[in-house]
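Ligand: NAP. Inputs:
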Amino acid sequence: MIRFPNALITGASSGIGVALARALALPGATLHLSGRDAARLEAVAATCRAQGATVHTQVLDVRDAAAMQDWISQAGRLDLVLANAGIGTGTGDGTEPAQAARDVFDTNVTGVLNTALPAIEAMATQAPAPDGWRGHVAVVASLAAFVAGPSAPAYCASKSAVQRWAEARDATERKRGIRMHALCPGFIRTPMTASNAFPMPWLMEPEDAARRMLDGIAAGKLRIAFPRRLYAISRVVGALPPGWRARLMERAPPKHQV
Ligand SMILES: NC(=O)c1ccc[n+]([C@@H]2O[C@H](COP(=O)([O-])OP(=O)(O)OC[C@H]3O[C@@H](n4cnc5c(N)ncnc54)[C@H](OP(=O)(O)O)[C@@H]3O)[C@@H](O)[C@H]2O)c1
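Predicted complex:
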């Protein structure tokens, strides 16, 4: 049985989004994929079609609320929506540029709301699936949600915002038959991390990350955080008194802008 026959993914033109699309691209499945780069998006769609899925593509920017509303409301039944599109930035050897901070919040927070809110409204009117839920909305946060990393202030804050929003909103959406999930991966080998010039412990392949995410959603987990050891470290560091944590994190190597 296909777990999620009708799925929609933002940021499907690269990295984790590609792996999620390919993992969902089973014969009989329908995928709605979006990204900004038309050529890369079409290449992903071709691969998914070759695996037997029906694929619709849309080139759009998640910051465009009206375009997102149109796209999602016209997609038809949606069993799973993955708000995956995101960008990173960093301080480099200086501080975080003002425009970079604004861009990160616009994409990683407003872009996630532009995806999740129309999805929730569309799901609220559809019949439950065999798993008993009308639909699932998963936001791609990060283990960065749990640590105020001084080398990527806006990124950490944006991921914390969407992780907490999804987990809190699940309580009321459950009553309407909709599940929310916060996906919190550690380091994944994608173009986003390709320029990181520091060690990335327990770096994972995107295919492994996608499998863990989809298994966690199917199992009904509210928070899907991995790898386990890095999650534990993130929670411990995040729970330190802020002054101690700041002194510890100051020793971490800088994250350069991408
Ligand atoms: N890689 C990691 O280690 C890691 C860890 C934790 C969380 N994450 C999160 O996972 C998600 C995917 O990251 P990734 O590593 O796969 O990065 P990636 O390879 O750089 O892919 C990012 C995707 O987001 C899309 N995107 C960015 N801005 C957009 C916008 N304004 N409108 C529409 N699409 C936009 C990109 O589309 P185009 O390429 O077409 O522009 C691309 O498809 C992000 O939310 C990221 O923060 C990544």
